[in-house]
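Quick check before the chapter quiz. The format below is the same one you will see on the exam, so make sure you can read both the input and the output lines.
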Amino acid sequence: MLRDEVKKYLDYELQYGSKKELYHYNCAQAILNGANDYYFLNLDKKALKLITPFGGGMYTGNTCGMLTGGIAAIGVLFTDDMPTNHVQLKEIIHLWIEQFTNEFKNINCSFIKDNRPIEDEGCSNLILKAADILEEIIGKYV
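Here is the expected output.
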């Protein structure tokens, strides 16, 4: 399951105790890295760095990194040589955004974080839920 691969990135920092912030994967990184492993996207470490600034709503609390990480994964999986003519890619992105919004009631990181069920948990459970939704959507097309 995609959830299991994403969870590895969320749990990675726990082994470092008080220095865990040095080994933290943000929401966008956890989703894309997990998808890279689960779907064998073959993204190298440099390519995976591209998603880093999308975490935390691009460090501004705007568009959620869980959403943008999923968009990046979908892009790698479904983009043809002519993505502007790719009807299926657009359909999948629309479905991802629609289901993401239905689940989290917004695409804005600040809103989602402010309305999470258990404040002290951080975003881990939200990220895993996003991974479940993403896997379900991708599964409809592969």
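If your answer matched, good. The chain has a mean pLDDT of 91.
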